[in-house]
Design brief:
heterodimer; A: OB fold (Dihydrolipoamide Acetyltransferase, E2P); 3 domains; twelve-stranded mixed sheet; 30 strands; B: Nucleotidyltransferase, domain 5; Rossmann fold; five-stranded mixed sheet; 18 helices
């Protein structure tokens, strides 16, 4: 066997790293902060108004007149503001009598009046949109009318999968070991508003209890597919999440099934017990992948030792890897060989492989596609 | 673009910029015939930190350059043209589906008529149709507007009304789109293109309704009369706008467009092109399938009519969980011949979804993935058949002879008995360790009837050849026939159902070197060796109630083509009936697995921790 190196993806898990987050409005608006400002996680940094919802009114039908007559029957014109009860249109009637009129049921403005279709489109009140900082830190860049970039030194953990949007709360580690399941009895009322960190699989009763006590988020090693289905109320088809409304944000760091959180990840959380965290469960597994994140800002010089983030990198001899597919799913070991030539797998496929040796002894041959980097 | 003398072309370079990988192939003229000689690939570089598609293109071409020992990239970092001695190429072409491909909203007046024709035009041009808006789509107008606002399309296609017909409804559609102001994917500086291909009398009114916020292109009506579609002008406009707007805003494409000798095409549009060319040239009916990680594309050409569907969220990695949810785990497991734990499988499926690049290591994992693939393909084909129909809304002239006929407009034009060639591409089909597995996935999912040749696209070369067909048809056809397709063999299947073990059909195979006769019992599957390049005459005598192409109980005699798998005789009947998942089903499937030697014995490959 020949030693070599190979590119392998991994998830970030860092005790201290400089982290930047870009916070942008979906459309142009006002940026409320300036470069150099210090912002808190839940502070609004930019806001705008989305044009209001549109309501088409078939005025020709409502007044029982030909579409071509609609413009001259309108009492308001394009661009006019209207309020509930305002008369929008009135027919001429017969000799000025028997007139039919239409009163608005909503507030808004007249967007358009069509003589072709007899359709009047009313635009509702603008919808406010606010973007929060998410990260407590310093504004390092402002994009005029669009948003800003915030930077801070943080403890950063990327999960493999999550559901639910951005939430905030202190870290509360609920398990004593990373291979302990997070069960309902480990959740206490004191965890209200907290980011609860478990060890291995989070059980359905733990999720239920966490929701009941009003926890902000749960972070654990794994989850059973069936429990996720129960939580969502449906089977998840594609991993594009973040907009769920299930009363809690949930992140798993390793995957589905009985799987312990990596020791190092668990250790990072344990070291930040009580610290304020920002959590985002949004996951997009497509081109331009987006993983869920737990970000814990570090105030000033910290006792937490700095290190390098574990990003996609090079697989070499001695690198610690996590096996991410059966039959050894979840096991962690060190690369002991990187054969150059593809090998035939049990399945009959030929693929480039890596030899992984476990701390407990023994080694296995795994397709390179089935391992990801993990730091000691 | 340069003028090319086809007779002088010696070296052709083609790239396909996919979402994740950019693939380059080299085609050279050898002894008067064009052959694909080398290939290379590199990660696509459309997204940050590179944000320039040409970097990935040059990396892929550099790999080809090294393998071919032919200099293809100049000192200026561009493709070297024209070919001189052992450097450069005469033609350079490219396709693209990077950045999620071309995404469109289509709109029409009646969902089953003009809106469906518009959808056909968009899909045929290679687009992903995000939504179809129609006056009768059962959504209220404000819901339609809300939907348009949420989506971020690259192009909107509006159709509606036959020429000379009422203008009101199509203008109403335009009036919904205009204020919704959908945000384009490529930022605020991008003016969203809108194509109008509806009632020509309504064009000025639509222009007025749409206003100035859009880049409006008006083309001929894609349904000028109910009885006829005219999709060409709309498709051409989509291709033009794809280049002018979408590609021009994607990082690096402005440069790439300068390099190519033919317009860059959306990848699926190019695949459709080559399949239509082949079907027309050989006078055959073709179905092609490309199963990817997120989506499955099905293409068909029946009696010259081309159709394409994209089944979003039917795929083998990103969408694998959705396949299991849509098909139901019981339907997936009916294709599995070994006992498996369903809870564990469900977790495995989710783990594949969140780590989509992993590959099956064990035989169990492979068997399960191929079972999921059968269901993904089956569902995609069901959707395709429902879409590839005769035109709906056409008035039928019925005579006394039609009294008992149930034929109505809007029937599928996909006739499994008339299908001549079934072409497979996409990871799970192309990279199956045994070609027998590929053949069986195709047969189980598509249920071909009568005589059907099976093939796979060796290295997903069809997109390249689809663009090449536009500038050098001969080179495209040479390579398609010699290098692109790997012939798997022929499937001969009888329609009808019967009792297991009862006679289904008798057969007699004759070729220059051998002859073989036999009888197939209902439920049986058999593989006869017939090598690639070999042909033989096959006579089939079906029993009463079974049909192999000439009617129930009638003899059929046809030439069959061999392949890497051979001749597959399928007496399992059509429609294919399987017992529900369970031991009975597993035993049944196990017999088929053994008959075709689909998977290796477990003992051959046992492996565990050392």
């Amino acid at each position: 066997m020949t030693a070599g190196s190979a590119y392998t993806p991994g998830l970030r898990a860092s005790a201290r790293t400089r982290y930047r987050v870009q916070r942008l409005l979906p459309i142009r608006g006002d940026v409320l902060v300036a470069a150099g400002d210090h912002v808190e996680a839940q502070q609004v940094v930019a806001q705008t108004f989305l044009p209001g919802d549109l309501t088409p009114l078939n005025m020709a039908k409502l007044l029982a007149i030909p579409p071509a007559d609609v413009p001259e029957c309108m009492t308001r014109t394009t661009g006019d503001a209207i309020a509930p009860g305002d008369v929008l249109a009135r027919t001429k009637g017969i000799f000025g009598r028997f007139r039919t009129e239409y009163k608005s049921t909503d507030a808004g403005t007249i967007e358009s009046i069509s003589a072709v279709t007899g359709q009047v489109i009313v635009r509702g009140a603008p919808l406010p949109i606010q973007v929060k900082a998410f990260l407590a830190g310093r504004v390092v860049d402002v994009q005029l009318f669009e948003g800003c970039v915030i930077e801070a030194d943080v403890t950063l953990v990327q999960g493999i999968f999550g559901i639910g949007g951005e939430v905030f709360g202190p870290i509360r580690v609920a398990c004593t070991r990373p291979d302990e399941n997070l069960t309902g009895e480990r959740i206490t009322p004191a965890m209200k508003g907290a980011v609860i960190v478990g060890g291995a699989r989070v059980t359905a009763d733990a999720i239920e209890r966490a929701r009941a006590v009003g926890a902000a988020a749960i972070v654990s090693g794994g989850i059973d597919d069936e429990d996720l289905r129960t939580l969502l109320g449906h089977d998840l088809g594609v991993a594009i999440t973040g907009s769920e409304r299930v009363g809690i944000t949930l992140i798993v760091t390793e995957g589905f099934g009985e799987i312990a959180m990596a020791d190092r990840t668990f250790g990072l959380f344990a070291a930040r017990e009580g610290a304020a965290a920002a959590v985002n469960g949004a996951t997009q597994i497509r081109a331009g992948v987006m993983r869920p994140e737990i970000v814990v800002p570090i105030d000033g010089p910290s006792a937490v030792a700095g290190d390098t983030a574990n990003e996609a990198g090079v697989l070499g001899i001695g690198t610690t890897v996590r096996i991410i597919r059966d039959p050894y799913f979840g096991r962690i070991g060190a690369v002991s060989a990187l054969p150059l030539e593809p090998q035939v797998l049990d399945s009959g496929s030929r693929a480039r492989v890596v030899e992984v040796t476990f701390g407990s002894g023994g080694s296995v041959i795994i397709p390179r596609a089935n391992v990801e980097l993990i730091e000691e | 673009m340069r003028t090319i003398d086809p007779s002088a072309v010696q070296v052709i370079l083609a790239t396909d910029c996919g979402s994740t990988t950019t693939k380059a192939i080299l085609i050279e003229r050898i002894d008067g015939v064009y052959r694909q000689t080398h290939r290379g690939e590199a990660p696509t570089t459309v997204e940050a930190p590179f944000a320039d598609v040409t970097i990935g293109v040059i990396n892929a071409v550099t790999e080809v350059q090294e393998l071919a020992k032919r200099r293809l990239v100049g000192d200026d970092g561009r493709i070297l043209q024209p070919a001189t001695g052992d450097a450069g190429c005469d033609i350079y072409i490219s396709t693209s589906s990077a950045g999620g491909g071309l995404q469109m909203i289509v709109a029409g007046v009646v969902r089953e008529m003009t809106a469906e024709s518009a959808k056909r035009a968009a899909l045929g041009a290679g687009a992903i149709v995000m939504d179809v808006i129609a006056s009768n789509d059962r959504r209220r107008p404000h819901e339609q507007i809300q939907r348009i606002r949420e989506l971020r399309p690259d192009i909107i296609l509006i159709s509606g009304g036959v020429d000379g017909g009422t203008t009101t409804h199509v203008v109403q559609i335009a009036e919904l789109i205009a204020p919704a102001r959908p945000r384009p994917r490529f930022g605020s500086k991008y003016t969203l293109p809108v194509i109008y291909a509806g009632n020509k009398d309504a064009a000025p009114l639509v222009r007025q309704a749409i206003g100035n916020g859009f880049d409006l292109t008006i083309v001929d009506n894609l349904r000028p009369v109910l009885e006829r579609e005219n999709l060409g002008p709309a498709r051409d406009a989509i291709h033009d706008l794809f280049l002018e707007h979408v590609m021009a805003h994607a990082p690096g494409y402005d440069a790439l467009m300068q390099w190519t000798d033919a317009p860059i095409m959306p990848t699926p549009g190019a695949v459709g092109n080559i399949l239509q060319t082949i079907a027309a040239r050989q006078g055959i009916n073709v179905v092609g399938v490309d199963i990817g990680g997120a989506t499955t594309d099905v293409f068909s050409v029946f009696d010259g009519t081309f159709n394409r569907t994209v089944s979003a969220n039917l795929g083998m990695s990103y969408s694998i969980s959705n396949v299991c949810a849509e098909a139901g785990m019981a339907n997936v497991l009916r294709w599995v011949h070994m006992a498996m734990d369903e809870r564990e499988l469900r977790n495995r499926v989710k783990n594949k979804m969140i780590r989509p690049t992993t590959i099956p290591q064990t035989l169990d994992a492979l068997v399960f993935e191929q079972a999921v693939a059968r269901e993904a393909l089956r569902l995609a084909y069901v959707q395709h058949k429902a879409f590839a129909t005769t035109l709906r809304g056409v008035q039928q002239q019925r005579t006394v002879g039609d009294t008992f006929s149930q034929a109505v407009s809007g029937q599928t034009i996909i006739d499994a008995m008339k299908l001549d060639l079934l072409v497979a591409s996409g990871g799970v089909l192309s990279h199956a360790p045994r070609m027998h597995q590929t053949a069986m996935m195709l047969i189980d999912a598509f249920e071909p009837e009568g005589f059907t040749a099976l093939a796979k696209d060796s290295i997903f070369m069809m997109p390249h050849l689809g663009v090449l067909a536009q500038v050098h048809p001969q080179a495209s056809l040479d390579v398609f026939e010699r290098d692109c397709l790997i012939q798997l063999g022929t499937c001969v299947a009888a329609t009808g159902t019967g009792q297991a073990g009862r006679p289904c059909f008798r057969f007699a195979l004759r070729s220059g070197t051998r002859s073989e006769t036999g009888e197939m019992a209902f439920g049986e599957l058999r593989l006869l060796p017939l090598a690639a390049g070999e042909t033989a005459m096959l006579t089939v005598d079906p029993e009463r109630g079974f049909d192999c192409g000439a009617g129930a109980g009638h003899r059929v005699e046809r030439e069959v083509r061999g392949g890497t798998v051979g001749l597959i005789l399928d007496a399992r009947g059509r429609p294919l009936g399987l017992p529900d998942a369970g031991e009975a089903s597993r035993a049944q499937v196990r017999r088929w697995v053994q008959a075709l030697d689909i998977y290796p014995d477990r003992a051959e490959t046992a492996q565990g921790p050392a």
